Amino acid sequence: MPRLLADLTPLKVSPAYRRLWIGNSLSAIGTQLTLVAVSLEVFHLTGSSLAVGMLGLFALVPLVVAGLYGGAVADHVDRRKLALGSSGVLWLTTVLIAAHAWLGVESVWVLYGLVAVHSGASGINQPTRGAIIPALVGVKLLPAANALNMMTFSVAMMLGPLLAGVLVAGVGYAWTYSVDVVTFLAALYAVWRLPALPPQHDPETEGRPRRVGWRSVVEGFTFLASRPNLRMTFLADIVAMATAFPRALLPAVGAVVGSAMLGGGEAAVGMLLAAMALGAFLTGLFSGPLTRIVRHGAAVYGAIMAWGLAVAGFGVVVYFASRADAAGQDPAPYLWAAAGCLALAGCADSVSSVFRNTILQTATPDHLRGRLQGVFIVVVAGGPRLGEMLTGGAAELVTEPVTLIAGGLLCVLGVSALMRWQPGFLRYDARHPVP
Predict the structure, then answer these.
(1) Counting Cβ atoms within 10 Å, is residue 204 exposed (0-12), middle (13-18) or buried (19+)?
(2) Which of 36, 57, 75, 90 has the most C-beta neighbours closer than 10 Å?
(3) Long-range contacts made by residues 208-212, C-beta under 8 angstroms, separation at least 24?
(4) Which residues contact 48 (CB under 8 A, 6 or more apart)?
(5) pTM of the entire structure?
(6) Angle at 372 between CA 129 and CA 199, to 5 degrees
């Protein structure tokens, strides 16, 4: 059993990483509280789902811009200072969101603006923290550290929305936001305690003036374009998310499988989302075997294949549930099978994320690590949005079950075509990282 459980070595050998992991664990739940509570408050103020959807636009654009530029900044300045500054902005933004609620301002546009600032600061903070981890734990322990980080994220995704609903209903928006204000102090303290973390210099540009600008961003993309293994980590994830990301279809699916269970379709959607997060959490909890895998490219391929098959299986379950519903039978029992498929999908996505991030962190030179982490954040944030648009549009034409089944199979075919195009990725060995 100890060999199956998560490898806690990074927490034992690196006090700085341990403080950062604990701080991030607490703040991640608080952040999810705020994100969900803001969407609930916007709907409360407007009664409009479109107004809630606009939160995504106000969050995504600053995240993309700041993620790319912030990664370049992280390659030119002390990463501790940059992480501390961006974390401070995140905390102050949360304070202002809480103050907005305490003062009873009730302005949707103020919330939009604060969400945009929060997202922009996150776009700088996330790639900076991603570039910091290798310096804290070393290359050998990166898979274990990334698995622990994924476990934290999945717990936040499970508990955050649940607690947000309970707290908003029980104590109101102001107290809910205040929880995030308090818990984020742990992350702020952990970053403050980090040692100085200046990036390594590029030996080819040693002695030249070092300027931060969009030219630095272009340098990162140029490097990425010429490194097939790193490029494949992004392309494989884009294929997986664009073809088989099911979240946009869950409300329609919940209406079918949850009508007589757990209080209705909304609760069924919550259960399905929680199932995906549970799969990711269990992967982190039992991630011991992942740390002993050295063929990281093959592991990414296998995980994305499993993701596609799990989503296709989810579509098959939804198909039979819809037939049962059309025949006047109770389709609610299919909810458990659907949740099981999504739990497997969450597990597969977590494995893929662990190894893709590890490849990115180990095969990228330190002086470019921030920029490529910025690209990673943009792909992770933008890929699901693209998938939601494509699957939502397809479902309008061919129904949800067909979209899910076809999307899962297209994912399998697409990632297999990528591996045939770039077979060297399957031979990627963590002991000899080649970008």
Answers:
(1) exposed
(2) 75
(3) 210/76, 211/76, 212/72, 212/73, 212/76, 212/77
(4) none
(5) 0.75
(6) 55
> Which ranges constitute the DSSP H helices of 207-264?
214-225, 228-244, 250-257
CA-CA distance, 251 to 253, in Å (whole number)?
5
Contact 127, 370 (CB under 8 A): yes
Give the pair of three-digit tokens for residue 178.
């205040």
Which of 119, 115, 121 is closest to 41 using CA atoms? 115
The one-letter amino acid at 133: I
Q: How many residues does the chain have?
A: 435
User: CA–CA separation, 115 vs 135, rounded Å?
Assistant: 31
- Determine the Cα–Cα distance for residues 379 and 233; give it in Å rounded to an integer: 10
Closest CA to 251 of 167, 157, 318, 348: 318
Q: Are 191 and 83 in contact (CB under 8 A)?
A: yes
Q: What is the C-alpha to C-alpha distance for residues 292 and 295, in angstroms, rounded to an integer?
A: 9
> Considering only CA atoms, which of 136, 394, 362 is closest in space to residue 243?
394
CA distance 90 to 177: 13
| Contact yes or no for 309/375 (Cβ under 8 A) | no
* Residues 79, 131 contacting (CB under 8 angstroms): yes
- Residue 104's Cβ-count burial label (10 Å; 0-12, 13-18, 19+) is exposed
Q: Which regions of 252-342 does DSSP assign to beta strands (E)?
A: none
Rounded to 5°, angle at Cα 198 from 89 and 124:
30
Tens digit of each residue's pLDDT (9 = 90 or more) over 85-141: 999 999 999 999 999 999 999 899 999 999 999 988 988 888 888 888 888 998 888
Q: Quote the strand ranges of 220-333, DSSP E.
A: none
